[in-house]
Design brief:
alpha/beta, 2 domains, nine-stranded mixed sheet, two-stranded antiparallel sheet, 11 strands, 41% helix, 21% strand, DNA-binding
């Protein structure tokens, strides 16, 4: 029995029909007539020497041979699609798709993108604001910016500065709670998006850093960091805000950080792409801009006594 592969068009017709379990729907997907698709599948069955589908009255079912072929056919066309997409990207030096979390996109990236666009008018930049795990080999994404720990095996990774956290609030709320001790009576806002950090970067940890024994459990909880920061801007209370999420609101006076003690997390932002992709002109331009924008506000860290979270975690 020969292992010579049948024509690719016949395998493609089979793959579509196996996914839809309908010749009509598969023909529509491939933009061919049902008769043409049926002919392709019939030729594939003749090449194999046995049927791949049971033709029922108003439906089709895979035979045992069809069930054996379907997964490999699907995987094969997926692999071909990924390879073709990767090859086409090598010729594209103007389009760039970046994925980042919704909070970072809203609070840090979006306010700065005018500057990048002005510097690089030839780059068409697209953003996908999501925390969904992406596969840079499969998904139509060039760069991922993620916060945490990884793992980042098999990827080009640039780790930027660690994040520190400090209480921030509106100027009006700050007037009511002028000391760390008084903050124990303040309405507190919780950013639950960082609950995964170890050791924890929570209110209890910050209070220990300033010598106050207080483990607050009640307050307003948000699953997104930007929503928690926006609540603080609106005067709801104080939030233990991450540097990247609060920096612009601090600079523009919507928030104040009255206590100059911050805790430094073990997590950090990473710039991620496939190995070799970092040398593509638009990716390199975005990476350099991203790092330089972070460095522009590095001096603000000098205003705080930044304590590594490991130094104030419970024994």
């Amino acid at each position: 029995m020969s292992d010579r592969l049948p024509p690719l068009t016949a395998l493609r017709a089979f793959d579509a029909a196996a996914r839809h379990m309908s010749f009509a729907h598969a023909a529509k997907e491939l933009n061919v007539t049902p008769a043409a698709l049926s002919f392709q599948i019939k030729s594939l069955e003749e090449h194999l020497g046995q049927p791949l589908f049971k033709r029922l009255n108003r439906a089709v079912e895979l035979t045992e041979a069809g069930r054996a072929l379907a997964p490999g056919a699907a995987d094969g066309f997926q692999t071909l699609t990924e390879a073709w997409r990767a090859a086409r990207r090598l010729q594209d030096n103007t389009s760039l798709t970046v994925t980042a979390g919704p909070a970072l996109t809203a609070k840090w990236l979006a306010p700065r993108l005018y500057d990048f666009a002005r510097q690089h008018p030839d780059i068409d930049l697209s953003f996908s604001a999501t925390l969904r795990m992406v596969d840079l080999r499969r998904d139509d994404v060039d760069v991922a910016i993620r916060f945490g720990y990884g793992p980042d095996e098999g990827l080009y990774s640039v780790q930027v500065r660690k994040e520190w956290l400090t209480p921030v609030m509106s100027p009006e709320v700050a007037e009511q709670f002028p000391t760390p001790e008084s903050l124990t009576k303040a309405p507190l806002i919780f950013d639950d998006s960082i609950a995964f950090l170890r050791p924890p970067c929570d209110w209890a940890t910050w209070f220990r850093a300033v010598g106050v024994q207080h483990n607050p459990e009640h307050g307003t909880h948000f699953s997104n960091a930007d929503h928690a920061v926006d609540a603080a801007v609106a005067g709801v209370g104080a939030v233990l805000g991450r540097r990247a999420m609060i920096i612009k609101d601090l600079q523009e006076g919507r928030l104040v950080a009255p206590f100059k003690t911050a805790i430094e997390s073990t997590g950090r932002f990473r710039f991620l792409c496939l190995p070799g992709v970092e040398e593509r002109p638009q990716v390199k331009a975005f990476r350099d801009w991203f790092v330089s924008e972070i460095d522009k506000t590095a001096h603000i860290s000098d205003e705080f006594d930044i304590i590594p979270v490991e130094d104030v975690s419970p024994a």
